[in-house]
Design brief:
This protein is α+β, with helices and mostly antiparallel strands and 281 residues long. The protein folds into two domains: 3-163, Ribosomal Protein S5, domain 2; 169-280, GHMP kinase, C-terminal domain (Alpha-Beta Plaits). Helices cover 38% and strands 24% of the residues. Strands 1, 2, 3, 4, 5 and 6 form a six-stranded mixed beta sheet that branches. A three-stranded antiparallel beta sheet has the order 7-9-8, with helices on both faces. Helix 2 (96-111) packs antiparallel against helix 3 (118-133) and helix 9 packs antiparallel against helix 10 (270-280). The longest helix has 19 residues, at 194-212. The protein starts with a strand and ends with a helix. The model has no long low-confidence stretch (mean pLDDT 94). It binds L-homoserine (HSE). Residues 13-14, 19-20, 95, 137, 139-140, 181, 184-185, 258-259 line the site of L-homoserine.
């Protein structure tokens, strides 16, 4: 196989209370990448969208992942050419950089005859997140590659668990501003109060249990973030009002999607999702 066309989905990282350790894949939106195998050691990138992302492979999230794959292979007769068609807006909070990074890892793997394990794909793709946000984190990458819902128990060493979940409808509203993940990480406090930590780990455990037991009420009660949201929500105009209105309209709960500015709401019924869409508008 010398050419592959892949779809790489948007993702919701953190899942409200699980900063850096929980994430889910969305059906929509998704990026499209067309990737060709080259027989010389170079990476050629072109864009079929209007985001003007860098085409220098060292400065491109997908580019650094291809380079990392080439380094891992240690084969000087392999390179990649990619056409990026991004639909996930960079800086929107639904895993735009992860879609490029994970897409590059998965496409390279297909072209090379599926030589990398899932964990190796996540490791490779995290190079892209490092370029985009300054830090390796896998809460967008893992669900982007594995689908569904992922728990990242640890990244050193990598320990990723796919969590079964009941049907959930996810609404994401994107305020027309951009928040860089690196900036949204910079403003976080480096220390947390023990009482907040206790509440947060109660919520994370409750959320995972709720997903596994199909307990929507427990999911709703656990969708609370007392550590990150109070700091980051000040970057998002109208955040409190949107959240309150959506909950009044029947959402189980929600919060900031990834590092924002998108706001995510989870619900049981699609009908409620439609009402919620109106409330968000
Ligand atoms: N867990 C990361 C953060 C996700 O919140 O900074 C970024 O998309």
């Amino acid at each position: 196989m010398e050419q592959v066309r892949i779809k790489s989905p948007g993702t919701v990282a953190n899942l409200v209370c699980g900063f850096d350790i929980l994430g889910l894949a969305l059906n929509d939106p998704f990026d499209i990448m067309e990737v060709k195998l080259l027989n010389e050691p170079k990476v050629v990138i072109s864009n079929r969208d209007d985001f003007n992302l860098p085409t220098d492979p060292e400065k491109n999230v997908a580019g650094v992942v291809f380079l990392a794959a080439m380094e891992k292979l240690n084969n000087s007769e392999i390179g990649f050419e990619v056409i990026m068609e991004k639909h996930i807006k960079p800086g929107s909070g639904i895993g735009s950089s992860a879609a490029s990074a994970a897409g590059a890892a998965v496409a390279a793997n297909h072209l090379l005859g599926n030589i990398f394990s899932k964990d190796e794909l996540v490791q490779l793709a995290m190079n892209g997140e490092k370029l985009a946000s300054g830090v390796k984190h896998a809460d967008n990458i893992a669900p982007c590659i594995l689908g569904g819902l992922s728990l990242i128990r640890s990244i050193h060493p990598l320990d990723i668990i796919s969590i079964p979940a009941p049907d959930l409808h996810v609404t994401v509203v994107h305020p027309q501003i951009e928040v860089r993940t690196s900036d949204a990480r910079q403003i976080l406090k480096q220390q947390v109060l023990l009482k907040d930590a206790i509440r947060q780990w109660g919520n994370i455990a409750g959320l995972v249990t709720g997903f596994m037991k199909n307990d929507y009420d427990l999911i709703g009660r656990s969708l609370e973030d007392v550590i990150i949201e109070p700091v980051r929500s000040i970057l998002i105009p109208g955040f409190d009002e949107v959240k309150r209105n959506c909950k009044e309209a029947g959402a189980l709960g929600g919060g900031i999607s990834g590092s924002g500015p998108s706001i995510v709401m989870l619900r049981k019924e699609e009908k409620t999702a439609r009402v919620e869409k109106k409330v968000m508008n």
